[in-house]
């Protein structure tokens, strides 16, 4: 459990704080300034509530039903009914870390003082997060416009003491039971408060921030496995020279090339490409590795910039601003939907080039002296033949997941909400894409490590992998990724390789020799 404390003020928070709360269970507190700002905006809402003039979200219905004026005697029921009716998701449950991220981000918006909720509502949400209570949120229901309505409604339902939730140990129970166990009183919502809990881009943004953290680590992992494959194929590192990459000044490309150079430093295998089978250049999947991983890096940088802007936003409709309440369209998820889709496209291509390198390691006609499929006794043994099939299947899935969700729109709410972002769907498929990418990189690691072992056994006289490669292979073996030998049950090796990649073990093993990689 992350022991840090995250204090929310009126000016937003950092991506690191979101990850710390979502994954590490960091404690959340509201600053005195945030509480004061919420109190001021609440007084504005209460003044409007007392007025005979209808105000959207305060004294009217919602969406296409906004034409009806709701009297004071029905407004508590109105807000409660809004949450209940909008908690209409279906399907598998959303991962706890995503739910915690979207709750924290919604709380962050409440803390800006632009939503008009009472401080009590925000304080209760903070207590729920700190207690480790996570609402059960079904996957399907959000269109990414008017915010992530259904997912946020399921979270708001927990604040009311309704619906199902999960405790810190992963046990499901009625929300009322979990609140009572922690001494948390359910909230009775007043004017605008139900709407303020639902009308945000927090699910999309939370997914994006978690994805950015994961993809950053996977891109560096791909730089490392690309270097290992280049080494195992006796390729040249001359294409990684900084002066070559300066000719095309994409910052991500230069960073990936630098990572590969550092992993290959001191290798006795690099440069032997001319010894037995002369070749002027390595294949694209090897030679262009920095260009593809670098494009991923630059795409990720753009996504992080979009996320940073959204983190600085106060997304609600209507909003309390300068003593008045104004309707707006800031809840539209287009900015987030686009980059969520963009990252899925980038991830698919990064996986595609990694799979091509793996196939080259296994193909006797292109591996420059390695045995077919890296098998011990080819024909009797199949080696890593089907591991590459698995990798190819994953790449196929990644290509399907790269089809953009954000180009779609289905009108809802009797044509009042006639254009939606589908950003939530983009985020859901990006999570699956990053899972697949981690597995693809794990297969390349498995193959490259075995190929390096075989090079030591039968490669150029006196040549051996560089210090970084040796450290990586040793760490992988310690993590349960087996070495060369006769055919065996491979799934455990691949599972261990995935854990090694996903958990950061691969990058850590490289950095123990190279120092910090980008």
Automatic annotation (TrEMBL):
Pathway membership: Amino-acid degradation; L-histidine degradation into L-glutamate; N-formimidoyl-L-glutamate from L-histidine: step 1/3
Entry EC no(s): 4.3.1.3
InterPro entries attached to this UniProt entry: Aromatic_Lyase (IPR001106), Fumarase/histidase_N (IPR024083), HutH (IPR005921), L-Aspartase-like (IPR008948), Phe/His_NH3-lyase_AS (IPR022313)
Gene3D superfamilies attached to this UniProt entry: Fumarase/aspartase (Central domain) (1.20.200.10), Fumarase/aspartase (N-terminal domain) (1.10.275.10)
Keywords: Cytoplasm, Histidine metabolism, Lyase
A GO MF label: histidine ammonia-lyase activity
Residues making up the signal peptide according to the UniProt record: none
Reaction(s) catalysed by this chain's protein: L-histidine = trans-urocanate + NH4(+)
Record-listed cross-link 5-imidazolinone (Ala-Gly), residues: 145-147
Subcellular location per the Swiss-Prot or TrEMBL entry: Cytoplasm
GO biological process, one term: L-histidine catabolic process to glutamate and formamide
PROSITE patterns given in the database record: PAL_HISTIDASE
Protein family per UniProt: Belongs to the PAL/histidase family.
UniProt cross-references to NCBIfam families, sorted A to Z: hutH (TIGR01225), PRK09367.1 (NF006871)
Name of the protein in its database record: Histidine ammonia-lyase
Native species: Streptomyces hoynatensis
């Amino acid at each position: 459990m992350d022991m840090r404390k995250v204090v929310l003020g009126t000016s937003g928070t950092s991506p690191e704080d979101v990850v710390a709360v979502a994954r590490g269970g960091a404690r959340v507190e509201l600053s005195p300034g945030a509480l004061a700002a919420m109190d001021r905006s609440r007084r504005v809402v209460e003044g409007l509530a007392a007025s005979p003039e209808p105000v959207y979200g305060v004294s009217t219905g919602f969406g296409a039903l906004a034409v009806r004026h709701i009297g004071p005697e029905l407004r508590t029921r109105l807000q409660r009914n809004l949450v209940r009716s909008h908690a209409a998701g279906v399907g598998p449950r959303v991962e706890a870390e995503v739910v915690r991220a979207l709750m924290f981000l919604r709380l962050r918006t409440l803390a800006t003082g632009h939503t008009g909720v009472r401080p009590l509502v925000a304080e209760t949400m903070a207590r729920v997060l700190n207690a480790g209570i996570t609402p059960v949120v079904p996957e399907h229901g959000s269109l990414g416009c008017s915010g992530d309505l259904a997912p946020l409604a399921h979270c708001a339902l927990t604040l009311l003491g309704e619906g199902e939730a999960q405790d810190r140990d992963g046990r499901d129970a009625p929300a009322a039971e979990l609140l009572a166990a922690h001494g948390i009183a359910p909230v009775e919502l007043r004017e605008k408060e139900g709407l303020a809990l639902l009308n945000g881009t927090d699910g999309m943004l939370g997914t994006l921030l978690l994805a950015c953290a994961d993809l950053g680590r996977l891109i560096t992992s791909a730089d490392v496995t690309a270097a290992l494959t280049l080494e195992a194929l006796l390729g040249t590192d001359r294409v990684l020279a900084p002066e070559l990459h300066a000719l095309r000044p994409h910052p991500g490309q230069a960073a990936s090339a630098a990572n590969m150079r550092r992993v290959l430093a001191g290798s006795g295998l690099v440069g032997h490409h001319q010894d037995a089978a002369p070749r002027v250049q390595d294949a694209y999947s090897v030679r262009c590795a920095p260009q593809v991983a670098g494009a991923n890096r630059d795409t990720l940088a753009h996504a992080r910039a979009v996320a940073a802007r959204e983190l600085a936003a106060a997304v609600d409709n209507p909003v309390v601003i300068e003593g008045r309440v104004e309707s707006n369209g800031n809840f539209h998820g287009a900015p987030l939907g686009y980059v969520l889709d963009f990252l899925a496209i980038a991830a698919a291509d990064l996986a595609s080039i990694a799979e091509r390198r793996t196939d080259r390691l296994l193909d006797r006609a292109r591996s420059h002296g390695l045995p077919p499929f890296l098998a011990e006794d080819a024909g009797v043994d199949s080696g890593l033949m089907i591991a590459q099939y698995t990798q190819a299947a994953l790449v196929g899935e990644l290509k399907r997941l790269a089809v953009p969700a954000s180009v779609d729109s289905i009108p809802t709410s009797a044509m009042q909400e006639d254009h939606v972002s589908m950003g939530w769907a983009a985020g859901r498929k990006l999570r699956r894409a990053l899972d697949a990418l981690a597995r693809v990189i794990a297969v390349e690691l498995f193959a490259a490590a075995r190929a390096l072992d075989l090079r030591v056994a039968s490669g150029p006289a006196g040549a051996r992998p560089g210090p970084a490669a040796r450290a990586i292979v040793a760490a992988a073996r310690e993590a349960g990724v087996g070495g060369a030998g006769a055919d065996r049950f491979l799934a455990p090796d691949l599972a261990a390789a995935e854990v090694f990649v996903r958990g950061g073990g691969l990058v850590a093993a490289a950095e123990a020799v190279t120092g910090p990689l980008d």
